[in-house]
């Protein structure tokens, strides 16, 4: 196991996996975090918002503080990879996007510091204190306060959500309208929300479709099958609490286990679990793409 450089004093070095892949949080990972937060934090009051990296707080730290300090958390919702915090008696919403390496951790205030913490929300309820810590090595993630209208616009710019309003007919239309490779279409957040590299690779393997296949050229029965296996693989990801390498963790800092169930992702050179052929890797849309050349033609 090679070790990456740590660029801040006293933090654990990042482990780089042998496999040439990097996991980013996708729909199942964000849903796992959402479920964790929903169990624990509704009813907590926001006492303060602190940051060590202003550009991750949008539009500004002042706006975020004015929008949410003193408010009580009502619930946590999600669309695709976007996490949405709603408050009681408030028209403001707080949005989190983890992007590449973000984590959201619920901690007791006495819990030791988490490396790369960029934003801390201090919370309290009936004398109990908690911190919601947003850590992010790469700093592409963000937290943002938005009003009703702005949230509507943001959600409208995203494609339908596979576990909510993406139905079979809508899915067929999306694929039939594009001449791009099917894998690129699956991962286009403006067309479908929440599907990233891991789950697109796995779904295409289960559907026996080559990732480069031109989207509008796939037979209808195969498109239908792809829809069902995509939903299935996303639900499986949630069941195993997401896929973890050195980035994604749940809201308690624990790893998910879906990586132990990958059929193609990150398995270049290993044997196909169905036919024994070697799994191949190609670049597609600048992302490592894994498939079985015999099963996925
Ligand atoms: Zn195969």
Automatic annotation (TrEMBL):
Keywords in alphabetical order: DNA damage, DNA repair, DNA-binding, Glycosidase, Hydrolase, Lyase, Metal-binding, Multifunctional enzyme, Zinc, Zinc-finger
One Pfam family per UniProt: Fapy_DNA_glyco
Domain Formamidopyrimidine-DNA glycosylase catalytic residue range list: 25-141
Taxonomy, superkingdom: Bacteria
Obligatory cofactor(s): Zn(2+)
Gene3D superfamilies, per the entry: 1.10.8.50, MutM-like, N-terminal
GO BP annotations listed: base-excision repair
Residue ranges annotated for the FPG-type domain, each copy included: 263-297
Single GO term (MF): class I DNA-(apurinic or apyrimidinic site) endonuclease activity
Keyword Metal-binding in annotation: yes
Catalytic activity: Hydrolysis of DNA containing ring-opened 7-methylguanine residues, releasing 2,6-diamino-4-hydroxy-5-(N-methyl)formamidopyrimidine; 2'-deoxyribonucleotide-(2'-deoxyribose 5'-phosphate)-2'-deoxyribonucleotide-DNA = a 3'-end 2'-deoxyribonucleotide-(2,3-dehydro-2,3-deoxyribose 5'-phosphate)-DNA + a 5'-end 5'-phospho-2'-deoxyribonucleoside-DNA + H(+)
Subunit: Monomer.
Family, per entry: Belongs to the FPG family.
Name the record gives this protein: DNA-formamidopyrimidine glycosylase
Lineage: Bacteria, Katanobacteria
């Amino acid at each position: 196991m090679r070790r990456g450089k740590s660029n801040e004093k006293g933090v654990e070095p990042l482990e780089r996996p042998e496999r040439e892949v990097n996991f980013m949080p996708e729909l199942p990972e964000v849903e796992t975090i959402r479920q964790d937060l929903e169990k624990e934090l509704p009813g907590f009051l926001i006492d303060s918002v602190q940051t060590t990296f202003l550009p991750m707080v949008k539009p500004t730290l002042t706006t975020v503080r004015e929008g949410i300090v003193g408010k009580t958390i009502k619930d946590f919702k999600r669309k695709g990879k976007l996490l949405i915090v709603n408050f009681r008696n408030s028209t403001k919403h707080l949005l989190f996007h983890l992007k590449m390496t973000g984590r959201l951790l619920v901690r007791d205030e006495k819990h030791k510091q988490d490396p790369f913490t960029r934003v801390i929300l201090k919370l309290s309820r009936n004398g109990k204190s908690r911190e919601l810590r947003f850590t992010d090595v790469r700093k592409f993630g963000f937290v943002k306060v938005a009003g009703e209208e702005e949230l509507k616009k943001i959600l409208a710019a995203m494609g339908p959500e596979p576990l909510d309003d993406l139905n079979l007919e809508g899915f067929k239309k999306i694929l039939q309208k594009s001449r791009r490779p099917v894998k690129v279409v699956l991962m286009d957040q403006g067309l479908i929300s929440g599907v990233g590299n891991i789950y697109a690779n796995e779904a295409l393997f289960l559907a026996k479709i080559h990732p480069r296949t031109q989207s509008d050229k796939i037979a209808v029965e195969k498109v239908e099958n792809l829809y069902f296996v995509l939903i299935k693989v996303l639900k499986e990801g949630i069941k195993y609490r997401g896929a973890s390498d050195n980035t994604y963790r749940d809201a308690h800092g624990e790893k998910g286990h879906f990586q132990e169930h990958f059929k193609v992702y990150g398995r270049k050179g290993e044997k196909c679990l169905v036919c024994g052929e070697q799994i191949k890797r190609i670049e597609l849309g600048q992302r490592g793409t894994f498939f079985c050349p015999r099963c996925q033609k």
